[in-house]
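Justification of resources, computational component.

The compute hours requested in this renewal are based largely on the per-chain cost of generating structure records like the one below. Each record pairs the submitted sequence with a full structure-token output. That output is archived, and it is also reused by downstream analysis tasks.
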Amino acid sequence: GTALLYFSHNVLTSFFINVVRAAGGDTADLGRITGFMALIEIPVMLFYDRFARRVSAPVCMRIAAAGFVAKALAFALAPNVPALYAACIFQTVSFALITPASVRYVTLYVPASDAAKGQSVAFGVTTLASVFATSIGGVMFDAMSARSVLLISAAVAAVGAAATAAFSSPERAAR
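The structure output for this chain reads:
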């Protein structure tokens, strides 16, 4: 599930200039939107511990998974640059949330003897997803519109969200 979510995330971020241009923007807009997206991640990551006191790690993972789907759809459907800024809000409940949540999930539900392996797998799949996203995403952006690519990316994220929801229970992690 995580690999599919990160595939979607990396298709967007690796080829973000294509998305910005499709919405009528330019490289200056790309820089400003990317900076804005990074800026709004910070509070979520800084205050994750407070949020995590009220919400379990599996629920955080599921919220983040839904956030990846919403983010892909919001960017795919953004008709202009202001709408891209609005779509950035989903960064707070996708990437900014899943990063600390996945560390917490492994810490809580993977046996201590396998903790390093668990973290390696959790973040190794993000690297694998990046490789596939840049390879496949490049071909897709060459062959179709940014909106079409992002809609496909949203579908991939939806499959990833379903897998995350199905497999992120503590009982499954203990196996």
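The chain is about 80% helix and 0% strand. The chain has a mean pLDDT of 91.
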